[in-house]
Amino acid sequence: MNENWHMTSAIELGLAIEKGYIDPRELTEYFLDRISKLDPHNKIYLRTTTDRARTAARSAFSRSKSGLRLSILDGVPISWKDLFDTNGDITSHGSPILINRIAKQDAIVVERAELAGLVCLGKTNQTEYAFSILGLNPHFGTPSNPFDNVTERLPGGSTSGGAVSVSSGLAAAAIGSDTGGSVRVPSAWNGLVGLKTSFGRLPLQGVLPLSTSLDTVGPLTRNVDDAAAIFSILDGKSSTNVKPWINIFGISPKLIQLVCPKGFVWEKLTPDIESVTINAIEKISSSGVTITTKEVKELSEVDSLINHFGPYHASECHAIWGSQIENNPNLVYPPILERIRLGGKMTASSVEQIKNKLQIATNSLHGWMKEHGILVCPTVPITPPSIKEVEKNFEFWKKTNSEVLRNTRLGNFLNCCAITLPCGKDNNGIPIGLMLMAPWGDDELLLEVAATIERILNS
Predict the structure, then answer these.
(1) Overall pTM > 0.85
(2) Residues with a known catalytic role
(3) pLDDT beyond 80 at 56
(4) Which residues, including other chains, have CB under 8 Å from residue 308's CB and lie 6 or more apart?
(5) In this structure, what are the phi and psi dihedrals at residue 364, rounded to the nearest 5 degrees?
(6) Using the 8-state DSSP alphabet, how is residue 433 labeled?
(7) Domain boundaries, the chain
(8) How far is the first Cα of the chain from the last one, in angstroms, to the nearest whole number?
(9) What is the band of 242 on the pLDDT scale with cuts at 50, 70, 90?
(10) How far apart are alpha carbons 266 and 391 in whole angstroms?
(11) Mapping DSSP to helix (H, G, I), strand (E, B) and coil, where does residue 385 land?
(12) CATH of 1-459, one of 3.90.1300.10, 3.40.50.10490, 1.10.10.10, 3.40.50.150
């Protein structure tokens, strides 16, 4: 049995299955064994779907022998965030309030993944109701960032378990959701690629909501090729002809135009993040990519709007979950409870005002980016604090949550697609992410550009 399977990309595993080098049944047992040994307290996986995984692996093995594989990732084991319904399993949104909720059918994206032969290993930990960017879950335990062996640091959220499942070698890839940065932040802090898809591009049926107007589904992977392949599958385009298309249809650096925004997205960065991201941008520029530095007024406008009106999606969260939460407020982590209750206090007038103003800013920015280029900036301004430092200090929790969200939430409120790429590490060995942001619907273009940037950064 290969001891490096847990560090191998999803596409490489898929190709090895196709060539007969890997038996998907052995591969699945390999990951299930690692989960059992390395996650004994279920902080990363809230629950595994062992029977389902083994059944899927057996079917993948049969297909591999008969030459009838469903996709390039047929037989590859992945994890799912605890807000995706999987038939007959608990889907609890990371909340003890919903711990007895049994899904009656698969979410559409889960169905599509199964039709492509992906193996579901289980449901990963998350922030309650996906309503925090830090990844804390005091009820079920918080998975710690695996890049610090001394201090237990935040994993990032809300797709905390998903990110750690990949970075710790407990899944070949993970599927999460992104409402304000919940795929990109944990990906950045765990050295992964995290794709925030365009709103509405991937179906949300069977995905427990936080916000009906901002929620998106996206993969957390080891590289851009994996993200592109999974995106294609979840988009309903899987087939036996799905290949790592980015390597075939790469884009020349000379054809790429990036804009590095001036202003607050570069403010109050930890020194290591500032130096690493600047060096990354300089390396990209020296490789032939055109990078200009410009004022992007819409970014600061949106930041001011949110700070003035409040995050309007809190009102959507309260409308969906408020009554259940108020029946069991003692079962909700206090800072999360406060955020949801804030949504219940927002007036319809204020919500409509901010939505209208955001739409104006969105239309303006998308037109501007079509002319000037894709935006590039640091994904997260700070490195992850320790879990203990944040968990009991609610004021520090609120301050840190706001700081971490600052850059990523722009893509959600401005209706963009976005991706984070690993671009280096700080002096403590914690990964640092570089974010690219493109107009709504340009997901494929964003992936092609990201693949080129990834090759430059890795060269």
Answers:
(1) yes
(2) 81, 158, 182
(3) yes
(4) none
(5) -65, -45
(6) E
(7) 1-459
(8) 30
(9) very low
(10) 27
(11) coil
(12) 3.90.1300.10
